[in-house]
Amino acid sequence: MSESMFKFSCADFTFPLLSHGNALQLIRLLGIDAVDLGLFEGRSHIYPSMVTNDLRRTVRDVIRDLSSAGLVVGDVFLQTGVDPHDAAANSPDKSVRLRNREVFQRIIEFAKLVGSNHITGLPGVYHMGQNSKDDWKRAVEEAKWRVETSWKAGITYSIEAHVGSLLHDTETTLTFVKCCPDLTLTLDYGHFIYQGHTNESVHPLIPYASHCHARAGSQGKLQTIVKENEIDFESLLTLLRKSGYQGYICLEFVYQDWEGCNRTDNVSETIQLYDMLKAI
């Protein structure tokens, strides 16, 4: 455990080229004692379909690897499709939304069994050919349902406002959260800084954060090296501290062929960012 007052985790999807067991071992070698488990259909160590098809076996394997590495779970990050548009939470297809609810209920079971009390999801997207007001209404409806369903299980549910989602700026994100009582945010400044927003414009989202993602980013670069970082982590952590923030800060460099997110040495950059954050 670091000397910082904050709890740190690292995403398992930071190291997708390793087996899941080895990715967890690497996270522990970095001196981090918690992991965020990514469940992204078709592109993570664990798929949502693996949970729905064989919950017992999936939980058994994950608990074995967690125990071997000496890690606890900070968050379960759910994406039901291969990309945010695929099987989006606010899909105009009612059968997709109903299937998503079935998956979500199984993910709640999974989270509880692996020891996580926090689940992150995506808010939804605007669908081509659909009325934007209807897309918004469906997104709010599904978020409210997930919050209530999670709360009954003793789990906090949050969404991540992200590039390509219907939550494209801080004002829209604040409006959405206020439409959904008890909904929280997995806050990632990078998605806003990338689009040219200022750090100051993102600060009003802090009171709604129950989880945070941290990686280096700058305008026009969703992920970059720490030396090029334009996210004001010092102000962020200072404000989190003042707000009494109790959640994890997840070191979340990713490795995928999207927005240039396969151009960083994730081991070295994770170490540098972790050292920087602990010193704040």
Structural class: alpha/beta
CATH topology: TIM Barrel
Main β-sheet: number of strands, strand sense, barrel status? 8 strands, parallel, barrel
Give the strand tally: 8
Tally the helices.
10
Q: C-alpha Rg, in Å? A: 18 Å
Distance from first to last alpha carbon: 15 Å
Strand order of the largest sheet: 1-2-3-4-5-6-7-8
Number of domains: 1
Mean pLDDT figure? 96
CATH superfamily: Divalent-metal-dependent TIM barrel enzymes
SSE layout and pairings?
Blueprint: E1 7-11, H1 20-29, E2 34-40, H2 48-53, H3 55-69, E3 72-79, H4 94-114, E4 118-121, H5 132-152, E5 156-159, H6 170-179, E6 184-187, H7 190-193, H8 199-202, E7 209-214, H9 233-243, E8 248-251, H10 266-278
Provide key terms for this protein.
280 residues, alpha/beta, eight-stranded parallel barrel, 41% helix
Description of the molecule:
The chain is of the alpha/beta class. The protein has one domain: Divalent-metal-dependent TIM barrel enzymes (TIM Barrel, Alpha-Beta Barrel), CATH 3.20.20.150. The chain has helices at residues 20-29, 48-53, 55-69, 94-114, 132-152, 170-179, 190-193, 199-202, 233-243, 266-278, and strands spanning 7-11, 34-40, 72-79, 118-121, 156-159, 184-187, 209-214, 248-251. Strands 1-2-3-4-5-6-7-8 form an 8-stranded parallel barrel, surrounded by 4 helices. Helix 1 packs parallel to helix 3 and helix 4 (94-114) runs parallel beside helix 5 (132-152). The two termini are 15 Å apart.
